[in-house]
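Justification of resources, computational component.

The compute hours requested in this renewal are based largely on the per-chain cost of generating structure records like the one below. Each record pairs the submitted sequence with a full structure-token output. That output is archived, and it is also reused by downstream analysis tasks.
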Amino acid sequence: MFGLDQFSNTQKVIREGIEEKLHFGAQVYISQNSKILADFALGHNHPPAIDTNKELSSDTILPWMSCSKMLTAVAIAILNERRSLSYEQFVGDILPAFSCNGKEEISIKHLLTHTSGIRLLPLQWDKLSWEETVAAIAKMPIERDWTPGEKAGYHIGTSWLILGEIVRLVDGRGIDQFLNEEILAPLKMEHSGISMTKDLYLNSGLDISGLYRTDTQTPYSSLEKYFDSVNLVRPGASGRGPIKELGVFMEMLLNKGSYEGKRLMSERTVEEITSRQRQGLLDLTFNKTIDWGYGFMIDSKCHNRSYPYSFGTYCSEDTFGHNGNQSSAAYVDPEHDLVVCYVFNGMPGEYEHNKRLKAMNDAIYQDLDLDY
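The structure output for this chain reads:
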């Protein structure tokens, strides 16, 4: 429970959420100037009715949901730095089957900035293999009246599977292997990854848990559906690990590509992916104007007083990071040399989560006396 005493407001938000049955527990990791200020968990792994329920720990492996997108974005950035690909390169140059139905001029940059116009694909994702899913996305038409780069709308999964396929085609390794060898292992993120087999869950002896939908009459775990899927690798959603390990990844970004003497990327590359590459465009998914880097959301209070999945009231305008669907947040506030990561294990619906998210972000800054 390291740092718990310093974060009384943060602790209050978590405990009130448990009482309101929004979640059953949460993990928190916060560091500033490379010094760990908080690394704790509160609550339990499961709903009270489950007999095997136990206290959530800071070592529990939990899903990160769309925070996973940052890992895939960094994989692309590493390949760009090695000149294996370029952001301006058309996707069809690498994956020829993609170059059809209005998608001929979609570039890797468009995928990373959510401006490609391939947001929605009516598939049962859990029923298709990786190859079948990529093929289906490659055949899909671009959205009506959409010019890549001129319109914006958050892409939940389609573009990120294509980015994962680009990594495989360019590098030869699957995206999960690439991330393990190029990012997770160098950062000693030993219990993190974007794929996890049912055998690992059952037999590893690790404390692995899921997220629970709490906006239903009977909460149910995300692990159940995950293990029923044909494809367990989703570069935009299937990342998981203790939230403190995601914190290490964010500290590497705060340190401009370096962590404990290991350099994963150049300073220039980190500055490029975490600065505004898409600016002032209305996001048609969230119906708010939100700025983006290459795979990273940038604080957008300059456009909106509030917007879904923001980093809160008090963060600086250069804050960057990502959030996970109704559950997690991970961001860097460079002005304050601050890394904030947390995950709630309950998904209470968009409205309740965004209220919880704002309360959590504001509480953290209040506890750090940065609420100005």
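The mean pLDDT is 94. The two ends are 28 Å apart (CA to CA).
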